[in-house]
């Protein structure tokens, strides 16, 4: 028996699956039958319900190698709806990478190949995709998931993208009509276009996380394009009270606003009164002064350079 993942480039040969044998049973299967227990006797739905709660490391490195029944059951697309890649370490010397490469008889583990493997197994049903912070993800990876994960509701992008990849984010966002949550660890160059694409295409969008320099245009875009926004996280950003006021005034349905450890504003009575209609306004650690003790000014904000 040869198992081939055509979309990923990862070939799973019978030699790579020592406990999965065609026309026979593994040692584990035989022991279970001798004791009167068979994995085949367990309801598939029950096992799927267990597997869908596991991480991608267990689903790829552990589960398929237990027995034939577990391997076949793990291929149910329901098990691959949540693709949390951030929990994995793709460095060549990591335990996960070495275990995966050993199991599947590979020289090294490629992030792009692994991404295609798990996306292919989801058969278009993936609803949550979380990229590693620094994965080396390329525009080809983003294009691939934008086509093969049409039902995404939650997306977390890497913190570092090449400029040419950054500029194509709005194009990809426009393909996810069901998108509800987007996490941007750093504000992309195409932020204004991205927010506009969300407002135009994603009618269920409710949560945005972004960190960076939030200027007047950015605040206005959030207020104008995302009036239905319910949760907004800006922690670690640079923005003034004026930008916050624009956002709060435009996003009237905000239930939670998180702006911790920001630079450029302090939650005074005026701002607290303006945000009084928000159920949760978290602003701990935000301040007007920089670490050097000098008050920030508009020229520093407009320069586009902000370090944290």
From TrEMBL:
InterPro entries: LRR_dom_sf, LRR_FXL15/At3g58940/PEG3-like. Residues 24-35 have a biased composition (Basic and acidic residues). SUPFAM superfamilies: RNI-like. Residues 177-262 form the F-box/LRR-repeat protein 15/At3g58940/PEG3-like LRR domain. It comes from the Eukaryota. Residues 1-35 are annotated as: Disordered. Transmembrane segments: none annotated. PANTHER family: F-BOX AND LEUCINE-RICH REPEAT PROTEIN 6, F-BOX DOMAIN CONTAINING PROTEIN, EXPRESSED. This is F-box/LRR-repeat protein 15/At3g58940/PEG3-like LRR domain-containing protein. It comes from Musa balbisiana.
């Amino acid at each position: 028996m040869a198992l081939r993942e055509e979309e990923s480039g990862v070939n799973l040969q019978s030699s790579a699956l020592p406990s999965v044998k065609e026309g026979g049973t593994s040692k584990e299967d035989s022991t279970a039958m001798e004791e009167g227990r068979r994995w085949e006797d367990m309801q598939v739905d029950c096992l799927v319900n267990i597997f869908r709660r596991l991480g991608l490391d267990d689903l790829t490195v552990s589960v398929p190698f237990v027995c034939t029944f577990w391997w076949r059951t793990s291929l149910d697309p329901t098990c691959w709806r949540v693709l949390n890649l951030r929990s994995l370490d793709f460095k060549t010397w990591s335990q996960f990478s070495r275990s995966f490469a050993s199991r599947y008889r590979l020289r090294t583990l490629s992030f792009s190949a692994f991404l295609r493997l798990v996306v292919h197994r989801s058969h278009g049903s993936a609803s949550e995709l979380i990229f590693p912070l620094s994965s080396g993800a390329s525009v080809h990876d983003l294009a691939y998931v934008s086509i093969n994960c049409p039902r995404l509701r939650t997306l977390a992008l890497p913190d570092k993208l090449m400029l040419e990849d950054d500029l194509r984010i709005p194009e990809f966002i426009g393909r996810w009509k069901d998108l509800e949550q987007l996490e941007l660890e750093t504000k992309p160059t195409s932020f204004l276009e991205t927010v506009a694409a969300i407002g135009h295409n994603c009618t269920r969008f409710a949560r945005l996380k972004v960190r960076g320099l939030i200027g007047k245009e950015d605040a206005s875009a959030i207020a104008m394009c995302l009036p239905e926004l319910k949760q907004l996280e800006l922690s670690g950003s640079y923005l003034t009270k004026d930008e916050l006021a624009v956002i709060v005034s435009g996003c009237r349905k905000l239930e939670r606003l998180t702006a911790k450890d920001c630079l450029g504003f302090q939650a005074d009575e005026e701002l607290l009164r303006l945000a009084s209609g928000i159920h949760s306004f978290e602003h701990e650690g935000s301040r007007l002064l920089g670490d050097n003790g000098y008050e920030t000014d508009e020229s520093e904000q407009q320069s586009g350079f902000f370090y944290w």
